[in-house]
Structures are given as C-alpha cells and as structure tokens.
Amino acid sequence: MLTRLAIGIAWLLHLLPLRILNPIGQGVGLLFLMLGKERREVTRTNLRLCFPALSDDQRDKILGGHFRAFGRAVLEAGIVWWGSEQRIRKLVRMEGYEHILALGGKPYILLAPHFAGIEHAGLRVSMESPGMAIYVRQKNRTFDAFLRRKRTRFAGTQMISRQEGVKPMIRALREGMFLQLSPDMDLGPKDSIFVPFFGVPCATVTILPRLAKLTGARIVPAEVSQLPKGQGYCVRIYPAWENYPTHDVHADTQRMNAFIEERTREIPEQYLWMHKRFKTRPPGEPRIY
To answer: 3, 140 in Cβ contact below 8 A?
Structure first.
C-alpha cells in the first residue's frame, strides 16, 4: 500500500514544471541526509577514502551536494517514467551520439557508471534504439514490477536481472541490440578481482572485458550529469575504446575503473557514494563499513 502511495505521489509531482520540482527534490535529498544515518556514514567513509587530500569541510560539501543530487534525481525520474517523448528530450539532452552511429550497426556495450542521473540516461538512450539493460531485483515486488514496466516503456527495450547470468546478454548483442552495463558495484568476491579505484583496492567484476571478448562488441563509455540551475541532464557519449579487450583482464578492468574515476572527479557530488563500494576486502584486510 505504501509503495503504491509513493508511486502515486511521484506521478503527481512529475506534473510540476522542472523549476519547481528541482528545489523540492534537493530538499528531499537534504531531509534524507539528516534522517538516513547509515547512508550518510557510508558516503562519508567513501569520500574520506577516495579524497584523503581534501579537508573535512570540503568533503562535507561534496556529501551535501551528493544528497541534493540524489533527491533531485529521484523526484525528476517521474518525468522519464511518465512524461511525453518531447518532454524527455527537453529534459535529457545527448552529446556524442555520432560515436554510436559511427559503429555502423555493430554490437556495442554502453558503459554507464552509477551517476545520479542513470535512470534518466537509460530511458533517454532507449528512445534511440532497441537495447537491453541489467538491473538488480528489488525486494519489494510492487516496486520491482513498476520499475521493469517503466524502464521498458519504449519499443524494443528489455530488462534482465543480474541473477539471470550472461547468456541473455550474449544473445541480445548477437541479435543486434545494444547492452547498457553498469558494473561499478561491489557484487562480492565471485567473478571479481581487486583493482584500484581512487587508489583503494576495490572488488570489481570483470564482465565488461569478458563480454567484449565473447561477442566482439565495442565498448562505448558514457556519463550522465545533472546540469546546474535545474536545466535537466546531459548524456555524454565518448568514442568507442580502441584495443579493447586485451589479453590482460586485470588491465582491462582497471581501464574501466580509471575511466569512471576520471568522470567522477569532474562531478564528484553526483557519483553514487551511498553504495558500499569497498565492502569486499582483500584477504586479511579489516572491514571498512
């Protein structure tokens, strides 16, 4: 019942103009900052590990900006869930789509790191061509079904859960669909190796180079950023990586982390710091969280 109520409120809010919805979202984020002690402390720990040269005040500024960006993204997601195509195109602009067109229809994997606007980016890109995205099943069945329905609202888009494995991904790529992949989460030691992320050993899944090797798909990295003053979002698509994958899975995975780190340094408050990115530790190292 509460889930349906929350969805109903989100629907009502999406009817508001962006100039009003934006500050409300930031306010919701600050409220979460005050009330969400666990996520606040996870975020603070991640920022301390990744930006040791910054002062506490500088890191706290990023922390506050992160929760504002998160709250804004949650409320503004209603626009891509229910808004018209025209409104979505106005909300989320794209740069660099010519890099995808340059592939001439060859299969590709869109590397989409977990920035605040990832929901907006996924739906915006799905408007251009049929694709498949990987998602984590939600514990709440009502919300899980809702997300699947909304993320596949445009023709040809499919969602598969991480638990289904790589076979559906391989099949989708071989059928000409693109695959949106966001492998920058700590999924435990299985299929992971430790590579640096902001200089900290980080358990990172190797699915990106493995899929590229199995399917011949090109890797097209992307970044989504929230624009200032409530002007919406920008999905920036970069040229497909050359000489990828190599024979060295460790180096290929580290290249992915390095790309995400570079983009994060540009907009540090918008990366998903609430996630326990360093939960899995190398043997013998103490727990971080």
So the answer is: yes
ω into residue 245 within 30 of 0, thus cis?
A: yes
- Helix boundaries (H) for the chain: 2-14, 18-35, 37-50, 56-82, 85-91, 98-101, 118-126, 141-151, 167-174, 207-215, 249-266
Cβ proximity of 166 and 207 under 8 Å: yes
The amino acid at residue 247 is H
Q: Give the pLDDT score at 133.
A: 86
- Least Cα distance to 87 among 202, 232, 219 occurs for 232
Extract the tokens encoding 252.
């290929």
Whether 52 shows a pLDDT value over 90: the answer reads yes
pLDDT digits (tens, 9 = 90+) for 241-262: 999 999 999 999 999 999 999 9
DSSP class per residue in 225-275 = EEPGGG--EEEEEPPPPSS-S-S-HHHHHHHHHHHHHHHHHHSGGGB-TTS
